[in-house]
Amino acid sequence: MAASAPRPGKPVRGSETGRPIMAALDLLGRRWSMRILWELSQAPAGFRDLQRRCENMSSSVLSVRLNELTGTQLVSIDDEGYQLTEPGRQLVDAIAPLEAWSVRWAGALGKNSRRPRDSSVS
């Protein structure tokens, strides 16, 4: 059985007391969690579509992460598929400045952040 999702008030990685920020960082630091939230911020998605949008991540990892994100009320599912809840949208809004920062950071490192990885240009 998969480990349960981090929750404030319960011991989590980095905090025996489960301080809310540490619980959030534990949840968001799990493999693929941020990518799932980011993709769902663009549009709701069914399981297979979300898997494709996440570069064909394994179905077992996607299933575990979706269970964690729905269990923590950041994601919900209905007839349209998986989508962000209001707290999920607020979280994406809170981390949106990180995307702008990452583009500036890539520029400072001399990288073209918009160039696809498989570009034929060396």
UniProtKB/TrEMBL annotation:
Coiled coil: none annotated. Transmembrane segments: none annotated. Gene3D superfamilies: Winged helix-like DNA-binding domain superfamily/Winged helix DNA-binding domain. It comes from the Bacteria. InterPro entries: HTH_HxlR, WH-like_DNA-bd_sf, WH_DNA-bd_sf. Keywords: DNA-binding, Transcription, Transcription regulation. GO terms for molecular function: DNA binding. Residues 19-110 form the HTH hxlR-type domain. This is Helix-turn-helix transcriptional regulator. The lineage of its organism: Bacteria, Bacillati, Actinomycetota, Actinomycetes, Pseudonocardiales.
